[in-house]
Specification:
Length: 181
């Protein structure tokens, strides 16, 4: 029994230490967004439930060299870890002129307070937070799979003119540095 425990402990340690050097997964940009972003209309989670459209994104993107649209869901543990790492790296994001917009996928109005509360609890409340309850943005961007689901996490990085630069899947050891590299 003790041998089994030692073997399992060593295997876990090897897996844990080896996983730290895995880079973020860069995905091919879907054809729907290869050159530019399509029109979309979602909603910002704030006191006024403001609309968030392509025009609003253009204004936000113009304020930074890069803007990261971080698609997440509260049930997605890798998403939560990635957002926490972003919150811990706010100074580096600012230094590298990267703007972050969190895009919650598929949650209806009843959950908005819970989402905002969680975002604030991890000190990510300074990031703009939008909700895409009907997957309008994710479908328009070509991020939804044939099954109708979206594999998360996903992060779309655009430049100051909203030209898509890269699409990232699973965040790795280079997260969030990969956003400005």
């Amino acid at each position: 029994m003790r041998k089994l425990f030692c073997i399992l402990t060593l295997a876990f340690a090897a897996f844990s230490f080896g996983a730290e050097d895995v880079p973020s997964v860069e995905l091919k940009l879907p054809s729907a967004i290869a050159d530019s972003l399509p029109w979309f209309a979602v909603r910002e989670i704030n006191d006024m439930s403001s609309p968030f459209t392509k025009v609003f994104l253009a204004r936000e993107a113009a304020k930074a060299e890069r803007t990261a649209l971080v698609f997440f869901a509260t049930w997605c543990n890798p998403c939560k870890i990635g957002i926490k790492r972003l919150a811990q790296s706010k100074a580096k994001l600012k230094e590298h002129n990267v703007n972050v917009i969190l895009v919650n996928v598929g949650v209806r109005e009843l959950e908005e307070r819970k989402i905002r509360s969680w975002i604030n609890s991890i000190d990510a409340g300074t990031f703009k937070l939008v909700i895409d309850p009907f997957k309008v943005m994710t479908e328009g961007f070509g991020l939804v799979e044939k099954s109708g689901e979206i594999a998360l996490p996903k992060t779309l990085v655009v430049d100051e003119k909203m030209k898509p630069l890269k699409l990232l899947g699973q965040e790795g050891s280079d997260w969030p540095d990969v956003l400005w590299q």
